[in-house]
């Protein structure tokens, strides 16, 4: 609850100012083609660059409407997953050692070896872990057919929420509150799961 409060409370306090700032920046949006290309390119590059994917996906809903935002966001996130898997499969652990915290590598690789598709879905909304899981999936050779299917499903589910938020189905304030709260919820789930696993007694 504390984590979620930390994410949402600032929006409640500075909501009006944030809304005005956001709407002023999006008052003159790019053409549809440019918006689609930018959304896909930015989300695909998120696997190697510190790009706020939640913001991009929500902005896609704002600029392209629900269905356009959903498709562009899903396509970009899925392309990023493909790039991450390819990097892991082709470049192996050397690239992981440069991009991923060693402790995260141990935890994520263990989870992907035991229940790969469950954890790929759970880690999709979690910043950093989402990208790391794609690279590590390539390293540990998660079956590519299942990897493609379940990351696509997870990306679509995440994109539905962001596209709905950004497409003015709700106010700009709550759109970006959702864009911040979803990764926060994912991090909370991952943190609680790690705690549960760490407290298990090894026979």
User: Mind summarizing the main beta sheet?
Assistant: none
Indicate how many domains the architecture comprises: 1
The SSE string, one letter per element, is HHHHHHHHHH
Report, as a whole number of angstroms, the end-to-end distance.
33 Å
Structural class call reads mainly alpha
Alpha plus pi helix count: 10
Stretches where pLDDT falls below 50 for ≥5 residues? 1-11, 196-203
Q: Into which percentage range does the β-strand content fall?
A: under 5%
| Silhouette | globular
- The percentage helix is over 70%
**Average of pLDDT:** 76
Number of strands: 0
Q: Roughly how many Å is the radius of gyration?
A: 17 Å
Record keyword descriptors for this entry.
0% strand, mainly alpha, globular, disordered N terminus, 203 residues, 10 helices
What do you see in this structure?
The protein is mainly α. It has one domain. Helices cover 83% and strands 0% of the residues. It is built from ten helices and no strands. Helix 4 packs antiparallel against helix 9. It is globular and about 45 Å long.
């Amino acid at each position: 609850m504390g984590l979620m409060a930390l994410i949402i409370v600032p929006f409640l306090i500075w909501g009006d100012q944030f809304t005005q700032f956001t709407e002023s920046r999006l008052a003159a949006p790019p053409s549809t083609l440019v918006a689609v290309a930018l959304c896909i390119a930015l989300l695909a590059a998120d696997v190697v660059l510190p790009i706020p994917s939640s913001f991009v996906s929500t902005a896609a809903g704002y600029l392209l409407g629900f269905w356009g935002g959903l498709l562009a966001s899903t396509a970009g996130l899925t392309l990023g997953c493909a790039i991450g898997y390819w990097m892991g499969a082709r470049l192996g652990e050397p690239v992981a050692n440069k991009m991923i915290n060693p402790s995260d590598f141990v935890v994520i690789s263990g989870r992907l070896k035991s229940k790969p598709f469950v954890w790929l879905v759970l880690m999709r909304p979690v910043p950093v872990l989402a990208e790391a899981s794609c690279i590590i999936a390539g390293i540990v050779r998660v079956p590519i057919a299942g990897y493609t299917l379940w990351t696509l499903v997870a990306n679509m589910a995440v994109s539905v929420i962001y596209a709905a938020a950004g497409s003015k189905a709700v106010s700009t304030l709550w759109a970006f509150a959702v864009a911040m709260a979803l990764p926060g919820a994912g991090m909370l789930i991952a943190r609680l799961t790690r705690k549960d696993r760490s407290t298990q007694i090894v026979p």
